[in-house]
Records
---
Amino acid sequence: MHSFWYRLNGLLTFSVTILAIMCAIASLSDNLNTPSPSAEIQVMNINWFQKQPQGNDEVSLTMNISADLQSLFTWNTKQLFIFVAAEYETPKNSLNQVSLWDAIIPAKEHAKFWIHTSNKYRFVDQGNYLRGKEFNLTLHWHVMPKTGKMFADKIVLTGYSFPEEYR
Amino acid sequence: MGWIEENMKFTNVRKILSQAISLGMVVSLALMMWKGLTCITGSQSPVVVVLSGSMEPGFQRGDILFLYINKNPIRTGQIVVFNDGRDIPIVHRVIEVHEHEDTKEVDILTKGDANEDDDRMLYASNHDWLQQKYIMGRAVGFLPYVGWFTIIMSEKPILKYILVGGLGLLVLTSKE
């Protein structure tokens, strides 16, 4: 009952159980945080707006993105993955979500920022329905914890629209 | 003296049978817990190990992800595990979603956080988009480093044999 292997077995079982409990508590402590993020996106310029040879519309735009996401960080946060997506509806698709730009925020100090950028990923429609269409820009954030449950939320900004004609 | 020896043989047989039953119960319990987890999370493999570095720095090789799937539609930003006929499933983030008006089917495009390009090249036989049926689950939670055990076991199979052989030896030679 007191041999080396029994002691080792007991020790390992105990430490694994304690580690698991600590991870669970760390994850639960994230629920105590009440975040109050804010964001603003301005479309500075539609660089170009064309119909591709295959028949799909493509647009390139430049945006000013500013946000304060510091309140989302807790001691159990490893990083924040944020991205800006355009959301719109066409006669063919009831919902389209296209990710335009993303970034990883590794620490609270970097969570309050302002950036002037063109879309990182190509904005191509399934079809050619973009002319004159209204769209929303959503800033999503995904909180990746050091351990435990991941959670995500977003801010929806409305009132953007494509030009009536290609340019 | 003959029947004493016979009795001892019976006790040995009983001991071996009792050990075998204990082993069987442990294995069945483990299997029941695994299957129960499959039912609760709705996913065929509710726990996966991250095998590549394509989601760094968020997920490193050796982390485990807990998956959950329900009827909620797939939307951008979700981290999904998909398998469209490959050897091993891939864990990447959804960056584009197009939901068809008529069929309500969803066209999905994914990309690893650390990759430059999206996953279109990886999709099977010239599919441009992924369908919801290929998604095995959404990642809802994670534990770092715990998956290294599985990676070592599968990449150096000799260790698996050593471990199972060692355990077998231990069972046979233990006194109770």
Note: The radius of gyration of chain B is 23 Å.
---
Amino acid sequence: MAAPNLTTTLPAPGRGRSRERARPQWAGWLFITPNLIGFLAFTLVPLIAGIVISFTDWNVVSGVDGISWVGLSNFSALMSDAQFWKAMGRTFLYAGLGVPLTMLGGLALALVLNGPVVGRGVLRLIFFFPHIVNSIAIGFVWLLLLHPSNGVVNNFLRTLGVENTPSWLVSQDWSLLTIIFITSWAGMGFHCVIFLSALQSVPPELHEAAQIDGAGWWRRFTTVTWRSLMPTTTFLAIMSMIGHSQGFGLIAFLTQGGPGDSSTTLSYYMYQRGFQYYQFGYAAAIGVLNAIGVLGLTALMWRFQKGRGLYS
Amino acid sequence: MTAVDVASPAPKERRRARRSTGWAAELPQRGPRRTKAIVGLTVRSVVMWGFSIVFLLPFVWMIVSSLKRNIDVFTLPVQWIPDPIVWTNYLQVWVNGDPPMWRFFANSITVSGIGLVGDLLTSSMAGYAFARLHFTGRDRVFLLYLGTAVIPGQLLLVPRFMFFQQMGLYDTLWALILPGVFTVFGTFLMRQAFLAAPPELGEAARIDGAGEWRVFWSIYLPQVRPTLAALAIISFVGSWNDYEGPLVMLSSAQNYTVPLGLTRFIDAEGGLSGGFAMAASVSSVLPLFILFMMFQRNFVAALAHTGIK
């Protein structure tokens, strides 16, 4: 789930608070109780349990009764697990290529769509549409389009004269890149729409002032546009990075982490360990490390953007 | 996090609506600048529409292939008009599938429907209490919510799985419905909306003798209707498209939701019955496509609230 608008989440200072205080206390508690119970049962307790389980040896054989505390041994096992490190490397590759590709694509589309274009509204919808399609339907169509011998894409490449067409999803070298490509294709329009509305809220006076000062297109982009977009860019970068760190559907459906383990990222590795080998403690440990990594990177990005935006 | 603001203000939407059709009005009236602007407009339009093919063509191909015999799906060069047109793929998928598509649809509608109604109810109640009611411990509870907001959801997968297994809810739709009914995200969203509603409204109603529930239900809830609609879209799209949850929580095919059910249309040898697969894929997208066409702008604006599918 997305992070909320953190800047305005502080409790509202109550106007006429003293009068409101006279109201019964129970009302507030009654109103939050349904959600609170669910929150405790399905979010807070599982969260704590997830961390606790990562310190235990819990597998399907031992069951709930056979749970045993193993301290840090899951984590130390992970440190010497070559598959884990390779999965982490692939996750960095996946996000390191996928996030910029999606964002730059979205930004480029937005910049063009921000000018006069015939059918701008329709284009916006077309680009956005893949965002609401489930990943299995997207996976299916690309699976067929990218079929190594009979797919439309390779057929097209062959007519262009490409001789060694890639085998895409069934090739060790290409599988992760192909997943990155499909993910970016599906997410680009969402980024475009967000960038577009940010662009449209840049005051035109800023551009006019820069133009009067003799700034060219590129200079106006770097001084006005890019700096105005900074908060949006950070938001999208963080969201996209979290999305990639959790990326699952396409990998699980299209490659099952393969061929070999060539497209096994951390989130898929966690799933494998937990739900294919039933090593819940080990899987939870992977989940905890993945979460720590994501939180760390989020904090870094947040700090990086502070003081770089136009209005901060 | 300004991108969240994108969705709320109506004036911005209106401005965009005017802009999106008003390219003619943006051109200078006459002179060499007009010529330059027209060239720019043409180039931009051609490039953008050319690029849109990359986004459209896979879906066009999906629909076309859903109307082909399985053996024709891979015929090269691509037949863009199926010959013969085979509607029976849909019949096959919807009626003769094992289990048939309508079963997956029934499951998905149950999960997404109950999830949506429940999420709207619990989130708006809690959001209202956090925003407009005062009670001891409120801010401390809210901090708890806040603390979990940035935790990646995948970490919750293993413990939830164990929990539902212990409760005997593994392989039932409840394992998918329940987490969807109580969401931290929905609570935040609704709280933000209620914070924007004037506190005086409730005071006036209370003076007139309205009870706490009436103040909430008849006074405040109508104020936040746009946000309710946004949350409804977010909740429905999210649960309709969810794949990882059902994959972990369900085992028997009778209980599969639509995305998980789709994977059944790869046949046992791992071979693809392309026509069936595409007919099933088109079916799975259709409900959201229809909603998307009906509520275009609301859809885009609502989903701008969320970064993640």
Note: The first strand of chain A starts at residue 56 and ends at 57.
---
Amino acid sequence: MEGDQDTSGFTLVTRKPCFGLPTACPNCLPAYIYLKLAQLPFQLAFNSTFPDSEELPYFESGTYVAYNNEDGGVIEKLEKDGIVNLDSQLQSLPDYLSLKALIVSWLEEALTYEIWVGTEGVCASKIYYSDLPWVIGKVLFYKQTYLTKNRLGLTKENAEQREKLIYKRASEAYEALSTRLGEQKFLFEDRPSSLDAFFLSHMLFTIQVLPETSVLRRKLLEHGNLVRYAERLKSEFLEESSSSPSPPLHSFPSSFSGKGSKPKSKPKTEKSEEEKKFKKRARFFLAAQFLAVVIYVSVMGGGSSDEVEYEDDD
Amino acid sequence: MANPTENLDPNPPTREPEDEVEELNGDEGEVEEEEEDDDEGEDDDAVSNPQSLKTESLFRRMRSSPVPVRVHDVIVKGNTKTKDHIIEAEVDGVREASTLQELLEASRVANSNLRALDVFDSVNVTLDSGPPELPGTTNVIIEVVESKSPLTGQIGAYTRAEAKSSSVEASLKYKNIFGYGDIWDGSVIYGCDNSAEVGMGMYLPRFKGLPTPFSSRLYLSTQDWLNFSSYKERSLGLSLGLLSSKYHELVYTVGWRNLIDPSRSASKSIRRQLGHSLLSALKYTFKYDQRDSYLRPTSGYAFSSTSQIGGLAPDSRSLRFLKQEIDLRCAFPFGFYNAALNLGVSGGVTFPWGSGYQNRPSSVPERFFLGGNSSPVCSLGGPSALWGFKTRGLGPNEPKRKGDDERDFIGGDAAVTAFADLSFDLPVRWLRERGVHGHVFACGGNMAKLTENEFRNVTAPKLLETFRTSVGAGIVLPTSLFRMEINYCHILKKQEHDKAKSGFFLTFSA
């Protein structure tokens, strides 16, 4: 529920930024990248209190709104409504559909698994629930973990096999995409398309958000040309809006590791400051409660004889 | 929930003093004992003459001066399940009586209090002579018959302050399970404002020495505002009634609230508000109602003030807001046709607090909405009712999503309403006997947004310029469940997009 900067023009409403990404939600990032690839000027607004919404991200312009749960997604809806279309004449190409299927099914499934199961939801808490009150955040987190496991068909009996299959498919997808891309700038015809948006989003999230111990991240980093592709597109299209250039992707393993380097100590310092603040407020709250109870008992104890007489009036 | 302070029987069947009261001899300062009579009632005819002479003498003494007496003991009989201290706590005034007159009045009050607990089929308070060795004393005997069927069901129509509209409630109550006068209830409530609620409640007349009853309620509710503001509100929460007396009420509510828009047609402001929030709020209400009637006041006045503070949790991410509502009502009788002029004014303001509060919008469910099908004469819960305007039919509004010609009414951070209502009996006797009467009225109201620095643009001349007003006349039909009005309203002034038009309207107030 944080405000946006402009009431006219185009606005994309996403979940909040985190981990150095303009929006850390893997469902919202493709739409952001798509609009950047299309070089459409837009404002960014955030909704950080609705982690289970299917409508996010949504694009609005005046009274026009394109929700993500309509017409196959916000990118498809923008193309259909003629707002912006990077895929004109590409949909007829045979490779297009098969690559799209690869990215939006196998890779998306692998990323979902890695966020909620593989890494036990450590980054999910920060992306989706950090702005919600603790109780609500916890309940929604457990609910989403349960729903995700159901959606992925995971049970106690088949968990190991499913994990192997998911990672295997991800590896095969990376291999296919790496072969398809080579050293090209874009996936298709040297111009950006929605597949670049989806794939770049997947790559940025995997490299910048997932921890170093992530299996999926390790598999992705084995393909140097994919990392270079992501690096190029990020510096050309995404860093125009950022105030300072972010460090190169391949160096992120050291800066985002869990081994006590600077960025890690920064969140640690922030966390301890937050904790101190929280404890201080909790102490203040308890003291205020105690004082209110003492005042109430002393006042009501003295005034009790007055209160009993009220039945006489009618 | 039952509130003992509101269900008092002014004439409980207290035993007449002539049967069992000690006869006190004021000249000698001694006490002559009377024969005790059983509760079943002995035949008094054999001693009626000397008995009645003594009783007359006692009454003469009581009329002339206070008759001193001391309560020696309070004896409770008939309670197999209910704890003694629960009953004794309701009859505290009896122990402190120092004269017979005070004792009789305190006994009447004690009888009413015990009946108001709603867990007994019958209550009898008997005054008996004290021990012979202690002259001038009396024993108070309280006989109760506990309810044989502790499970009761009821259906009723009510006006609930937090819903700001009438509602129909069906509830099942289980009484006195643990013997503390506890009442457990499960209820389903359907409101006229498209709301539904399922809840479980617990009521305790005495809780750990607190002088006022304690109530708690676990609820799951939904309110459907899709047609008016393009959102649905779902809440799961716990409400604790910490203090409940005739004038004061203190309630703490903690709940999980979720705003959704399944229609996907919301305007921009509403879209920004969708999501989850934690409500942790304390609400204090002071209500002073001296009017002679709630449904047709003809004299007296009433004042109500409700203050609410939200965000009472260590978590800074909970919903933080301040809200204040004030109501003032006056009724002036005229000497003819039972006519009375009712005047009323209501106002309210809400604002967020915490870091960045000036730039933050207020939460939509906490804002004020005017209009609806309830009568401002009866409602005493902040600015809400306005004759002639539809539910959520005026105030700040925005266009819905493209393709929908309707507009969302997003509510105001400040609201004010005022009305004047002249009621009078109708010339037809048949209607008069049934309480059906007529009224003519005028009302007006307005709202404004204050948050996000909009308060700088709010001025009194601007508010007066955009003040909505309506006049009308109608017939009021009081029924056993609610007050119904059939009115013709004429809209004198409205703004663009307001949902109001001149014509006939029905209103309901419970």
Note: The mean pLDDT of chain A is 82.
